[in-house]
Amino acid sequence: MIWHTADAKYERIEIGKDKQQNQEMAKLIDPYKSQLDAKMNIVIGELDVELVKERVESSIGNWFTDIMLDEANRISTTKVDFAVQNYGGVRSNSIAKGPITVRTVYEVMPFENMLVAVDLSGKDVLKLFDMIAEYGGWPISRGVKFDIKEGKAINVKIDGKDVDLDKTYRIALNDYVAEGGDNTSVFANAPIYEYNLLVRDAIINHIKRDTEEGIVQTARKEGRITKLD
């Protein structure tokens, strides 16, 4: 049985600065907000430089995807070759230098996306990079390098080598993209390997582990993607 909406009505209510806070509602919410703030404001790490979101490559994108790659390889029994994240999936335009809180990570990744991996042939990997080039660049992990010319990916290298068309590459990404989100039809027939871990939790776990080992978070643009025209 398929259900359809029979009718819908709405009323536009303007909310301006002159509107007063509903004290009863505030009293109801405050205890929960206090509990949530206590968890969200926990400092889990330190960032030694401001991270910024931009195209075609960004420091925040490099940081994000390098963590995805590292965490996928911690879980996977098969080597993960690189990681990719859709540009719109990185929600913060910047992360300030200094303390990193749980809230910081929720702001950069508010979605309930899962960390997964897929296998692609070398031929399809090139199609993926062409798609990324057409978009104007997506965050991509270390080990990958290519140029964008006339909306196409050229001079593609993975770990310093040309893409082997006959090789199968394993790629870490979020489940939204793996299932075709952002028009990623290249993944249509690719098997999906699940790690039962939210991307957000992977980032939090990584930062906490680094902090325990005295490692400060950092990232910079490295020329992973270069636009030639």
Automatic annotation (TrEMBL):
SUPFAM superfamilies: 5'-nucleotidase (syn. UDP-sugar hydrolase), C-terminal domain. Transmembrane segments: none annotated. One of its GO terms (molecular function) is hydrolase activity. GO terms for biological process: nucleotide catabolic process. Pfam families: 5_nucleotid_C (PF02872). InterPro entries: 5'-Nucleotdase_C, 5'-Nucleotdase_C_sf, 5_nucleotidase/apyrase. Residues 44-188 form the 5'-Nucleotidase C-terminal domain. This is 5'-Nucleotidase C-terminal domain-containing protein. It comes from Portibacter lacus.
